Structure formats: structure tokens, C-alpha cells
Amino acid sequence: MPDRDPLIRVTAMPADTNPYGGVFGGWLMSQMALGAGSLASRVGKGKAVVVSATDFAFPGAMAVGDELSVYCEIAATGTTSLTITAEGIARERNGEATVKVAQGTFKFVLLDENDRPREVAL
């Protein structure tokens, strides 16, 4: 397991599978977006919305019951945006074996109380 704290941790359930019985890539992307959004809101100190999601890859597979941990870090800061890389690591249900199952990049724009872009103040 990486030597860092996950932004979120969740267990894959039967409803999260695709027609072939594997965990659906869309579910993985949504969990990663939640983790990245948590970091964007915390660092940006307010409302942050996704404006793009790119560079996704699914190098491994996870099964129902496996635990997904989402790790994120800021890759770049713009005038009103934060670019965040996300990585999903699955841990087998009844053990300690882990595998990277997803990675991708999200761009968030920070918004003010009127939902207008505001500057990043780090």
C-alpha cells in the first residue's frame, strides 16, 4: 500500500459491476472524481467543479468486495483551476495484496458564491 493517506476508501459492491461481472470502469472514475473533488475543495477552500477528466487508464482489475483507496495530488495550479492526478488502488477482500486499478487526471475550476470562477489562493 502506498505510504500516503487515501482521500476516500470504499468497498466495491455487486451493483458496481459491468455485464461481465467485473467492477465497472465508470464506477472507478466516479470514486476517483469524488476523491479529487475532496482535495480540490479543501485546497481551494470552497466550491470546485470538474471541467475535464483525461488520461484514464485501467491497468488492473478488482472484484466485488475489494476495497478501493483513492490517492490524489495536485499536479498543476492555474489562475482559477487545479489539475489533480488520481490513482485507484484495490486491496483484496480477505488479504493484503494490492493492485493499481485506475489512474487519471481531473481539472477543477474554483467558483465563488455566485458560481463564477475565482482565483486560486494557496
From TrEMBL:
Domain of life: Bacteria
Recorded GO CC terms: cytosol
Family matches, as InterPro entries: Cytosol_ACT (IPR040170), HOTDOG_ACOT (IPR033120), HotDog_dom_sf (IPR029069), Thioestr_dom (IPR006683)
GO biological process: acyl-CoA metabolic process; fatty acid catabolic process
Transport among keywords: no
Domain HotDog ACOT-type: 2-114
Pfam families noted in UniProt: 4HBT
Gene Ontology MF term list: long-chain fatty acyl-CoA hydrolase activity
This protein's UniProt keywords: Hydrolase
Record family assignment: Belongs to the acyl coenzyme A hydrolase family.
Protein's UniProt name: Acyl-CoA thioesterase
